[in-house]
Amino acid sequence: xxxxxxxxxxxxxxxxxxxxxxxxxxxxxxxxxxxxxxxxxxxxxxxxxxxxxxxxxxxxxxxxxxxxxxxxxxxxxxxxxxxxxxxxxxxxxxxxxxxxxxxxxxxxxxxxxxxxxxxxxxxxxxxxxxxxxxxxxxxxxxxxxxxxxxxxxxxxxxxxxxxxxxxxxxxxxxxxxxxxxxxxxxxxxxxxxxxxxxxxxxxxxxxxxxxxxxxxxxxxxxxxxxxxxxxxxxxxxxxxxxxxxxxxxxxxxxxxxxxxxxxxxxxxxxxxxxxxxxxxxxxxxxxxxxxxxxxxxxxxxxxxxxxxxxxxxxxxxxxxxxxxxxxxxxxxxxxxxxxxxxxxxxxxxxxxxxxxxxxxxxxxxxxxxxxxxxxxxxxxxxxxxxxxxxxxxxxxxxxxxxxxxxxxxxxxxxxxxxxxxxxxxxxxxxxxxxxxxxxxxxxxxxxxxxxxxxxxxxxxxx
Length: 462
Ligand SMILES: Nc1nc2c(ncn2[C@@H]2O[C@H](COP(=O)(O)OP(=O)(O)OP(=O)(O)O)[C@@H](O)[C@H]2O)c(=O)[nH]1
Ligand SMILES: [Mg+2]
Description:
The chain is of the alpha/beta class. The chain folds into three domains: about 5-115, Gyrase A, domain 2; about 135-215 and about 395-455, tRNA modification GTPase MnmE domain 2 (Four Helix Bundle (Hemerythrin (Met), subunit A)), CATH 1.20.120.430; about 220-385, P-loop containing nucleotide triphosphate hydrolases (Rossmann fold). The chain is about 45% helix and about 20% strand. It has helices spanning about 30-35, 95-110, 120-125, 130-140, 145-155, 160-185, 190-215, 215-225, 235-245, 290-305, 320-330, 350-355, 370-385, 400-420, 425-440, 450-455, and strands at about 5-10, 15-25, 35-40, 50-60, 65-75, 85-95, 110-115, 225-230, 265-270, 270-280, 305-310, 335-340, 360. The strands form two sheets. Strands 3-4-5-6-2-1-7 form a seven-stranded mixed sheet. A hairpin with a 6-residue loop joins β1 and β2 (about 15-25). α4 (about 130-140) packs antiparallel against α5 (about 145-155) and α7 (about 190-215) runs antiparallel to α14. The structure holds guanosine-5'-triphosphate and magnesium ion. Guanosine-5'-triphosphate (GTP) binds near residues 252, 253, 338 and 366. Guanosine-5'-triphosphate (GTP) binds near residues 231 and 259.
């Protein structure tokens, strides 16, 4: 696909850094570079070979070649580039002012400022990447853990796309066969044929379901989870937050009611990015500030995927404890019995008596006791154990999950119709729904407004 305009953007993050890059893509990229770039040897960027880096200066020709920055110019000729178009990249000094000045002079010479994700959108429209790979670019940039990086890199290399395309091909072959029987209706009585078609459809269904089942964990790995620490005042919630973060982020004292507001910090447990939320101890209080804190603690409960409920082993269970144990039953929760170094008044069995079937982790936070067990229990609760990346791809994105669901639904109907010996044209309709779902993932059947929505979520310059 040919785009009539040439786009430009600062491709590196804001702030001061060793280098910053202004990226330009489009038919005019090298001509614009020739207008603004001066090499000491007098070579023009239009003559530079592809995939080379050349030292020189960016100047403003309209201001008698005033020097704007000293740069390395990268030149890449179409079509072997990220976007499939001619690309030039100015490796400038990494500060907001020089970068903006270089971008300005590039725009002055005929480029247009790129929309967020527009480079990748061009890469997609020019067939350099399919849609799932393009989305993997954004996921790689946004990766919060090494595990999400690995999954994104594999998706970028086409692991998910290959699997989806494989399913697509198998369904398309089945559809072709079924459509043939629409044209030759005398064949649709062939019992053997229907049996093999059913077998083929069921085999695709098995693989499709397996892929769909990776989505819950996959999304958890990329999007993360909120984990709230709850409990009555002084049980050691803030101590736990600090211990997990290995910092002294929250104030810890022996005065009940120390934490008044929620404290949120990101951390990584077993490859899952977690937002750990320390809350104000739950109790009845006349203190207005603390009352609001307690309200916030209760609100946090509702938006957390996992609750860490803390209890004080050295104290009998009080009303606040019992209330927590009651909510634990209907939510994803781990019970933590802290202060096990003190004389034990409340035992794990006492907790389990109120809330059977939950995991209890015994801790002595200041000594770091029980923390490893707690971390393992957290990833077990969230992921059902440790996630290992195997041969098959992992679905990490809500859009893909939704498309797979549609594909699965269409396929289920098709199988049902095959089983009930329905007319082939009806089966074909269901199969097409399924194929559309699969096509959406790699962008074969995706509409313009959905594409716009996907790419607008990218960062500028990518
Ligand atoms: N003996 C003992 N003391 C602990 C343990 N864990 C925490 N503490 C102490 O308990 C006191 C309260 O700890 P915090 O972490 O502030 O408790 P909190 O639950 O955040 O309290 P609020 O913010 O008031 O709700 C501090 O003096 C901690 O040092 C433990 O395992 N054993
Ligand atoms: Mg606290």
